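Good morning N.,

You mentioned wanting to compare the apo and holo forms, so I went ahead and generated the holo version with FE2/S2 (inorganic) cluster. This is what I fed in:
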Amino acid sequence: MSSHAAPIPASRGPVEWPDALLPQVEEILSRYPTRQAAVMPLLWLAQDTWDWLDLDVMRLVARTIDIPPSQVHAVASFYTMFKKSPTGKYLIQVCQTLSCALVGAEAVIEHMERTLEVDEHGNSKDGLFTVLRVECLASCGSAPMMQINEHFYERLTPATCDQIIAGLRSGKPLALPRPEVDKWTFPVS
Ligand code: FES
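and this is what came out, ligand included:
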C-alpha cells in the first residue's frame, strides 16, 4: 500500500473540525493510549470530511494530536489510501505488485488509462475517475485486481474493466454477487 511519490499537497486555507465532529474526534482519541497513536483514524476522518488531504487539513490533524505537521505528512504520503489531491468520484487503485503483475496488471492499467484518457495525475477527461497504481492490496490469490472506492474487483481483464466502468458510468454498478463479502470476483477465464 505504500506510495512511491510524496508530492506536497496544495493548501485550501485553514480548517477546524466542524462542531458536529468534535465528539467523534474525542471518541477516536479515547481509543488509544497516546494522542499520537490516533494519527491514521484522524486522517481517515479528515479525508471523509474534506474529501482529500491538503496541508491545512494535515496541520489540523497535527495540532489535534500534538505532533509536527511533517510527521502527519509522512504518514499520509506513505499510504495510497490517503488522497493528497482531488480525485474523481471513483478512485480506482490498481495493484501493480508481483502477483498481479505476473497475470496481466500492466495490460489492465494501460487499458484503463487509455480508455479513460487520464492525465498525468490519473484523472479521467470527464473528471469521474482517477486511476492510481498502488502496491499489494492483499488480494494476491485473485490477481489481477483493483479497488474502486470501497470495493475490490478481482481476476480482471481489460474486457471486465470495460464492464465495470460502463456500469459506473450508467449509474447501475455491477451488483455484488455476495454483498456480505463486499467484493466482485470474476470467474476464471
Ligand atoms: S500482488 Fe496484487 S493484490 Fe497482492
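The mean pLDDT is 90.

Happy to go through it together on a call whenever suits you.

Best,
F.
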